[in-house]
Amino acid sequence: MAKQQRNIAVIGAGIAGLACARTLTQAGHRVTVLDKGSTPGGRMASRDTPFGSFDHGAQYFTVRDARFEKTLALTPGLAKRWSANAVRVLDPHGRVAEAALPSGEPHWVCVPTMDALPRHWAAPLVDAGSLDMQTRVTRIERDALDPKRWQLQTSGPQDSVHVYSGFDTVLLAIPHAQAEALLRLSALAPQMQEKLAKVEVAPCWTLMLAFPQAVQPNLTHLGPQWNAALSTHHRIAWLARESSKPGRSPVERWTVQASAAWSQEHLQDDEPRVTAKLQKAFAEVTGIHAEPSFTQVHRWRWAKTLTPLGRSHLWDGKTGLGLCGDWCLGHRAEDAFISGLELALKVHAG
Ligand SMILES: Cc1cc2nc3c(=O)[nH]c(=O)nc-3n(C[C@H](O)[C@H](O)[C@H](O)COP(=O)(O)OP(=O)(O)OC[C@H]3O[C@@H](n4cnc5c(N)ncnc54)[C@H](O)[C@@H]3O)c2cc1C
After folding, report:
1. Which of 103, 188, 238, 338 has the fewest Cβ atoms surrounding its Cβ within 10 A?
2. Relative to the CA of 135, which ligand 1 atom is closest?
3. Contacts of 244 (CB under 8 A, 6+ apart)
């Protein structure tokens, strides 16, 4: 049981928000998590299609921190090692060359899809009725009934509005730009806003492709022998064969992530144009010129941190406002976990 039980709102059910919420719940606090999306996980996301799943957000994760390793070990079998057989694809003068990447740290993927991890962490919150999805927080303000506490204005499906009240602590576990906008709109925490203004995060256009013809007899997959590659093609930074990940269905499927520079330059392009351009680049890099049976693109507005905050979280014990997210430390799912965990420990310590 907590020293003093707090009534805490966590805004955002990505890896950071869930790591934060589960830690605070385990410490005995009352926690309510609100997220504007339809399923928990944020950028640790997966999409089901008639041809199989795509991890269109985080592709895999690496484990460097003992606390993350320990937490993952609590659910054996949820994460499996992926033999990505990754290469670096160089394209300096239009001629593609491949170089094996040094065999580095293991690539881990969740089974059956990347969003299995956030779903698993969210399950106790769902069971307790303390996770509300499709709930966008639009304003943080002092509680109308008790000015020492906070209330949150929210909008939900069909523009429904609702006020959540009675919180002594509000933790924002959302991308930095959205946190900055929410604080600005709420006329709160100008010093935190100043710190957020220094963080830089790039967008990422992501293309998903499926080639069901490649599972016909005598043809296991199309194109290259590698399953994942870092690319120097000006349009593409990373591409991976989804069907090569453990626990996935065999239909040949690729996820292609555009480079940060190209994504920024084409941020406002329409989806058909982005699909055509990335599909052409995909053919150049992989040599796969077959027509896919399925294509879809997704635009991540805040995808990859270029300049992090440089500390794991922000916390103001006087007002009870805190911030966490991958952008505090870097651009990896593990950074989000550490950020959420360390904010929770700080809040609990009082
Ligand atoms: C294309 C792509 C590829 C990636 N590849 C990898 C990889 O290979 N390996 C790796 O380790 N990491 C990768 N990452 C990064 C990884 O996904 C993130 O580091 C991690 O998921 C971030 O978690 P988070 O909780 O900080 O933020 P998020 O996952 O963004 O969660 C924030 C949540 O807040 C919600 N939200 C926002 N505003 C509001 C509001 N006003 N009200 C209510 N809810 C709100 C959102 O719906 C979201 O669910 C990738 C990311 C992208 C986009």
Report:
1. 103
2. 43
3. 82, 83, 84, 85, 227, 228
